[in-house]
Amino acid sequence: MIQLIRGFKDILPGEVEIWQQVEKIAVSLLQDFGFKEIRIPILERTELFARSIGEDTDIVEKEMYTFPDRKGDLITLRPEATASVCRSYIQHKLYAKDPVRKFYTIGPMFRRERPQKGRYRQFYQINAEILGVESPLADVELILLLVSLFSKLSVSDIETHINSLGCPECRPNFKTALSGFISTETTHLCSDCIRRKDRNPFRVLDCKVPACREAMTDAPSILDYLCSVCTRHFEIVNEELEALKIPFIIDKRLVRGLDYYIRTTFEIHTGSLGAQSAVAGGGRYDGLIKLLGGPDMPATGFAIGLDRLAEITGLDTSDLIQTPDIFLAALGEKCRTLAFGWKCALGLEGIRADMDFENRSLKSQMKRADKLKASHVLIVGEKELEEGSAVLRNLTTKEQVLIPLENIIAKVKAKLRS
Ligand code: AMP
């Protein structure tokens, strides 16, 4: 038997209803806040991700699914969506008509991480991006959206972590201080951190290895190094979150695993997820559009992990698992052909109708109707044909009525809707 690739999974009926509901609620909220859907490809040129996410990041160094296509061009299964959204914004000159754009996109991402609970090699994200807005209010709007979405999805136990990563003005001073601190701790750091500490010391703050985390406990905080513009930006984020009564934690270690962030970064964690506790993350990436060859436009965004969200939502989706409104039990060839016509007509009228295509006994067809949890059965055999009506049975109340064959679709429909 050919099995799934490790770290990949099927989302089967029974579970998929949760995903559909989560996506529906998220899309409706995003649209209420003015976000428009954008659909971007799953494959992009490798260079797009290498340049934007950063060469020294885990994603680019070890996790991308990169391969040459048949002509030898290096292509990559997208590990995240932001770079592609920016590429699209630049390529189609979307900024020319209106620089301020709010986009959302939903789809699979691919990272060759070590699979474990809550961590897959193909996983799904809902992304939201606000392009062309420098104001910290855009960051706050995104955090509000996340917190509101989790509340609508009955996710309890969430913590909003925020930090600022400064900007190219003030970050170098922090980088120097951080490098100085790291050089006193090198004996405790993992080989990845040692290798990256000079080029990108932020990665050391972000490292998940427990010994590295421990060693970095007393590392300097970027918040002590922010320039006046970044300080004010961060203050506004704090003040507005307070005004909106959104509880948050300032987390000086929150640097996130991608290089393009500046100023505000945030993550939502929940206690319900165990080790992989981040369910969403994002931040501001003002330099990215320029870095990718576009105009110098600010931008901010987030990504929600749908796999983790589907696991922890408190939504009761038992009602969403669709069962037939009606099962057509037909006896004999002639009745089966007739019933098949009704089944198709009912389906086109928006009534979920099912039937058995084989020539089975009434008893086994009734069993099937029960198994499918149909709410009604319409029985038609030779006798019913002769008498000019079919029997409609409500499987919950066991009540039976005769439905005349003439204009039966409209009559069944009216009965089911009554
Ligand atoms: P990131 O793009 O790394 O900031 O991730 C944003 C969100 O995507 C995280 O908070 C997770 O919920 C989710 N996520 C990231 N990587 C994975 C993965 N390998 N498996 C499942 N979910 C993931």
Report on the architecture of this protein.
The structure is a single chain. The chain has 418 residues and is α+β, with helices and mostly antiparallel strands. It folds into two domains: 16-170 and 226-316, 2-Layer Sandwich (BirA Bifunctional Protein, domain 2); 322-417, 3-Layer(aba) Sandwich (Rossmann fold), CATH 3.40.50.800. It is built from 17 helices and 16 strands. The protein has helices at 16-32, 46-53, 58-63, 82-91, 94-97, 136-152, 171-183, 191-196, 202-206, 210-215, 228-243, 288-291, 306-312, 333-348, 362-371, 382-387, 408-417; strands at residues 36-37, 43-45, 65-68, 74-77, 101-110, 122-131, 158-164, 249-250, 262-270, 278-284, 299-305, 326-330, 353-355, 376-380, 389-394, 400-404. The strands form three sheets. An eight-stranded mixed β-sheet has the order 1-5-6-11-10-9-7-8, sandwiched between helices. It has a five-stranded mixed β-sheet with strand order 13-12-14-15-16, sandwiched between helices. A three-stranded antiparallel β-sheet has the order 2-4-3. Helix 6 (136-152) packs parallel to helix 11 (228-243). The protein is elongated, with a radius of gyration of 28 Å. The two termini are 49 Å apart. The mean pLDDT is 93. The chain binds adenosine monophosphate (AMP). Residues 80, 111, 113, 118-120, 123, 125, 257, 278-281, 303, 305, 307-308 line the site of adenosine monophosphate. Adenosine monophosphate (AMP) is lined by residues 80, 111, 113, 118-120, 123, 125, 257, 278-281, 303, 305, 307-308.
